[in-house]
Design goal:
By secondary structure, the protein is of the alpha+beta class. It has a single domain, classed as Kinase associated domain 1, KA1 (TATA-Binding Protein, 2-Layer Sandwich), CATH 3.30.310. Helices cover 25% and strands 36% of the residues. The chain is built from 2 helices and 5 strands. Strand 2 and strand 3 form a beta hairpin. It is globular, with a radius of gyration of 13 Å. The model has no long low-confidence stretch (mean pLDDT 89). Pfam families: PHA_gran_rgn (PF09650). It comes from Qipengyuania gaetbuli. This is Polyhydroxyalkanoic acid synthase.
């Protein structure tokens, strides 16, 4: 699953916001029952592994100049939650990447 979210921020600011808020990823999982591991493969790729209900969701966050792309590998056993995950990523991601208020 791919969820692109447009932004108008400098890449450095996007990376900072992602790093500062990565601990909030577990809050998106229903019931809050998730273990989250975050690492940076390079300055523009954040790897996120979320383990819940005996399954691990491997995902990547790709920081691009005008968008951030969230890629999530959803196992077949969890495919029924794809719309919920996509909606949560879109909602939280848009708030995270909103331009600063003047």
């Amino acid at each position: 699953m791919r969820v692109p979210i447009a932004h108008e921020l400098p890449k450095e600011e996007v990376r900072r916001r992602l790093s500062d808020h990565s601990h909030e990823i577990a809050e998106v999982v229903p019931g809050g029952m998730a273990d989250v591991a975050v690492s940076w493969a390079n300055e523009d790729t954040m790897n996120v592994d979320v383990t819940t209900m005996g399954q691990t969701l491997k995902s990547r966050v790709l920081v691009e100049d005008k968008q951030v792309v969230f890629e999530v590998d959803i196992p077949l056993a969890l495919s029924f939650v794809e719309p919920m995950i996509k909606g949560a990523i879109k909602s939280k991601g848009e708030k995270l990447l909103a331009p600063p208020k003047a």
